[in-house]
Amino acid sequence: MEEISIIIPVFNEEESLPSLLQELHSFLQNLPYQWEVIVVDDGSTDNTSIILNNYPWIKIVRHLSRQGYGSAVKDGIRTAKYEYICFMDGDYAHSPDLIFQGLTRMGCLDIIIGARDEKGENFPLSQKLARYLISGILTLVFRKKIKDINSGFRIAKKEKLIQYLNILPDGFSFSASLTLLVLLEKLKFNYFPIKINKRKGHSKLKTTTYIFQFVKCLYLTQFRWLRTKIASL
């Protein structure tokens, strides 16, 4: 029997959490795996912290102040006790049944990534443009089709993730940087198609800095990766 730790980073998600956690708990009752749910509250200033106290079946990791999406995911990974790690967004963008879909496709892969439907009305135009541009560049460089560089839904082996935590950024570019590291390290990965739900609450990303932050994070990630390789020689 496989085991999975589900990590949900949240920041001011009082609108989405009750629906997400209720549906997730109902789904997990029929999941044929051992499981745990870790919610990392990244310094929320709304009622998120109060809401989480109503769900005794989840593990809560709290940041006293906002440290960033990547920092929240990394603390979730450090807390996780099971072989497989799944991280999903806290704004109800991902339906819980994606967990089972991803697990059944893992096979001998190190990581599987949910490739979002870019034609869907719930996919912001700014993210479509950034994803198309940067995924196209990485596809040319690595000669591997990159369908979605920064999808927030992924399942991976913990042993593969834990070794990169010092390289990965603390901000929202964590997912894109992880994709780059997967390519640099030549890990076994694949995509599977997913649909995203209409967001509950408001996006935490600023459109005007979206592409710039992507380029910056990819440069810094590759620099840190090269530095670790040189240091190990």
Task: Give a structural overview.
With 233 residues, the chain is an alpha/beta fold. The protein has a single domain, classed as Alpha-Beta Complex (Spore Coat Polysaccharide Biosynthesis Protein SpsA, Chain A). It is built from 8 helices and 7 strands; from the N terminus they run βαβαβαβαβαβααβα. It has a 7-stranded mixed beta sheet, sandwiched between helices.
The helix/strand class is: alpha/beta
CATH superfamily: Spore Coat Polysaccharide Biosynthesis Protein SpsA, Chain A
Note the quaternary state here: single chain
Question: What coarse outline follows from CA principal-axis ratios?
Answer: globular
- Briefly note the CATH topology name: Spore Coat Polysaccharide Biosynthesis Protein SpsA, Chain A
Rg for CA atoms: 17 Å
Question: What's the CATH class label?
Answer: Alpha Beta
Number of helices: 8
Task: Count the domains.
Answer: 1
Low-confidence stretches: none
As a percent range, the share of strand residues is: 15-25%
The separation of the N and C termini measures 39 Å
